[in-house]
Amino acid sequence: MFSVDRGDFGPGFLFGVATAAYQIEGGQTDGRGSSIWDSFSATPGNIKNGDTGRIAVDHYHRWPEDLDLVRDGGFDAYRFSFAWPRLLPEGTGPVNAAGLDFYDRLVDGMLARGIKPFATLYHWDLPSPLQDRGGWMNRDVAGWFAEYAAVVAHHFGDRLAAIATINEPWCVAFLSHYLGVHAPGYRDLRAASRAMHHVLFAHGTAVAALRAEGAKNVGIVLNLEKSEAAGAGAADRAAQTHGDALFNRWYLDGLFKGRYPEELTTLLAPWLPEAFERDMEVVSRPLDWLGVNYYTRALYAADPAAPLFGSRRVAGPLEKSDLGWEIYPQGLTDLLVRVATDYTKLPIYITENGMSETDDSRRVAFYDAHLKAVLAARQQGADVRGYFAWSLLDNYEWAEGYASRFGLVHVDYETQRRTPKGSYRAFQGLLHNTR
Ligand code: IFM
């Protein structure tokens, strides 16, 4: 049970749940092409227990039951992603009719249940043929992505409540091309620098392609962290500034100020694409909304031996999720107020917030505290219009495989049986106002 009331959020505030295609669909049939996650997860050593998304939670076949859960939970909206390789198996060119059919059924299934579809175009499953051509390192990705965006907008646009271009560009670029933790698993500064720019250039290019097809309510989803200095000294404060630039400001400044933080353009100068400045008008095309995914804070300490800026993330003292992420609701309030004050007056949606945990009573407490943090941010002027819990179901947590459970609904991976947890019931109570 939560301590907040639905009425506290005012009329029109949307509550939803979120998922992503590769993490739940499975269904690698019916003409779906290969994605970078198929080969990355098939490569020994990349993923805990060697888990893959080949079957995932079989949402491809079980979507009616899953949408019933969204409806019965009382949620207004469902955030899902289209799988690019299901729609365009080669990444560009021929469209897979069975893929269109699947998403027709899914989107119509939401509408039939009174659920607003919040779509994401790219939640990390790049078609493998495009990776063969350099993927996010190749500037041409902007054109490939715009072609795919236009297909989606043309076919589904009038049925979608909102469209986000990219989910978590930091992960697409840095986590995947510098830290090597996600597909395609590069550990290369030039690869990362190029991906950091191309992901935002592709976003801006797709915004125009979406609008040209009549799409409304176009946005992007950023993962933001509350960055703080580990100690009070100047060196740790500088470390925090650099960490914040890499994680938050590259994306916020690029999108809303049309320039990247100078400390990064200087540091990455040898590796960034030539004349990237010319693209900044495209990168910063006006949007209709901003999505914020929030999980934790980052604590930075100075360490001359640390790569790039001599800035290292260190473990903090706060209570943690089972992934070791500190639980810090105040950080969500602070971030939202910062975004609204320093960057944009656009409507903000919390597009993801949640906790990997097997003890569900801790998850209920997590959500309760973060819902209060959203209310506090609204009171301080942040125009937050909705909140999506991550995630509807336990699912494929990327490099963590199936070991990590974020769901409001438990999934038995042997039988695919779905069982609502207490956290699902807590949302149900809030949204049906029955607590
Ligand atoms: O599961 C992921 C999701 O795909 C993107 N945002 C963070 C979640 C939890 O790690």
Describe the structure in your own words:
- The protein has 435 residues and is an alpha/beta fold.
- The protein has one domain: TIM Barrel (Alpha-Beta Barrel), CATH 3.20.20.80.
- The protein has 15 helices and 13 strands.
- Strands 1-2-3-4-5-7-10-11 form an 8-stranded parallel β-barrel, surrounded by 6 helices. It has a 3-stranded mixed beta sheet with strand order 6-8-9. Strands 12-13 form a two-stranded antiparallel sheet.
- Strand 8 (297-302) and strand 9 form a beta hairpin.
- The protein is globular, with a radius of gyration of 20 Å.
- The model has no long low-confidence stretch (mean pLDDT 98).
- The protein binds 5-hydroxymethyl-3,4-dihydroxypiperidine.
- The site of 5-hydroxymethyl-3,4-dihydroxypiperidine has 8 residues, from loops.
What is the mean predicted local confidence, pLDDT?
98
| CATH level 4 superfamily | Glycosidases
Helix coverage percent of residues?
Answer: 40-55%
Q: What is the annotated CATH architecture?
A: Alpha-Beta Barrel
Query: Per the principal axes of the C-alpha atoms, what is the gross shape?
Result: globular
Bound molecules: 5-hydroxymethyl-3,4-dihydroxypiperidine
CATH topology annotation: TIM Barrel
Structural class: alpha/beta
Keywords:
435 residues, binds 5-hydroxymethyl-3,4-dihydroxypiperidine, 41% helix, 13 strands, single chain, alpha/beta, TIM Barrel, eight-stranded parallel barrel
Write the layout of secondary structure elements.
Elements: E1 14-18, H1 21-24, H2 36-42, H3 59-72, E2 77-81, H4 84-87, H5 97-112, E3 116-122, H6 128-132, H7 141-156, E4 162-167, H8 169-177, H9 189-212, E5 218-223, E6 226-229, H10 234-257, H11 262-267, H12 280-283, E7 289-293, E8 297-302, E9 311-314, H13 329-343, E10 348-352, H14 360-379, E11 384-390, E12 409-412, E13 417-420, H15 422-431
Parallel strand pairs: 1-2, 1-11, 2-3, 3-4, 4-5, 5-7, 6-8, 7-10, 10-11
Antiparallel strand pairs: 8-9, 12-13
Helix pairs in contact: 3-5, 7-9, 8-9, 13-14
The structure holds 5-hydroxymethyl-3,4-dihydroxypiperidine.
Residues 20, 23, 168, 293, 352, 390, 397, 406 line the site of 5-hydroxymethyl-3,4-dihydroxypiperidine (IFM).
